[in-house]
Amino acid sequence: MAQKESKAGPLIAQFWSDLGIKYQHAYGDDAGLVKAVKTWLSYVTPGTSVLECGCGTGVPIGRTIADGGFKYHGIDIASGMVEVCQKQVPEGTYEVVSMLDYNPKTQYDGIVASLSHFELTPKEHTKMAQKWSQWTKLGGHLLISTIIFEEDLGGQASFDPEMECAAGVEVSFMGNKIIITLFTKEGWRRLLERAGFEIVHTEMDMFIPKAEATPDEPRYYIVAKKRVQL
Question: Three-class SS of residue 14?
């Protein structure tokens, strides 16, 4: 397991490492996410290499990918999360690194980022979309699991009409207040198309976390095909 100090900051890494298995207890039993992952994998060539950006504990995404016969590689900023993931999905390979700093030696047939991009700024989202494109083989597929920005979530957030996203959105998460970035559906379309992707499937689902002080989450799943080589 390779390790690299992340520019995203040790406090974020420590926050997620401290959560560890508690996060899985709250978020691991997610039938809607599993369904979305299986839908995405139906677009990916069987037995090929798949990357998860923000692998967490490996449940349910990593486990679902490995059980499907794919070659699974997970990266995460939090060493504590990766340690748990290695035990729960031993078939995979792993690196402790921020997705912003990751520099793969190969391209992937499929990439998934599930709820792992929220702490990125709008500018970093643009950078990350370009990286996802660079890392995905032409004809490969990306899965995004996210929450869509709605006006009642805005509060003191700053909305960018060009990018169709809001920065500085404050939300409750497992007893903590965290600041995140949220895009509208149109914002995600623009972001991914500019990076060479075409959205081929979307679906909505309501997830109810098993954690105190965490509101229900209206999930938005996006499957996008890489159409253009940047």
Answer: helix
Alpha carbons within 13 angstroms on the beta-carbon side of residue 168 total 6
Distance CA 101, CA 75 (A): 11
Question: Is the CB of residue 138 less than 8 Å from the CB of residue 229?
Answer: yes
Local structure of 223: helix, strand or coil: strand
DSSP label at residue 157? P
- Which pair of structure tokens corresponds to residue 14? 């420590």
pTM here is 0.89
At 98-107, the pLDDT tens digits run: 999 999 999 9
Helix (H, G, I), strand (E, B) or coil at 186: helix
Q: What is the dihedral of CA 11, 16, 19, 23, to 10 degrees?
A: 150
SS3 127: helix
Cβ neighbours around 207 below 10 Å, total: 17
150: left (phi over 0), alpha (psi -120 to 50) or beta: beta
Given a cut of 70, whether residue 153 has pLDDT beyond it is no
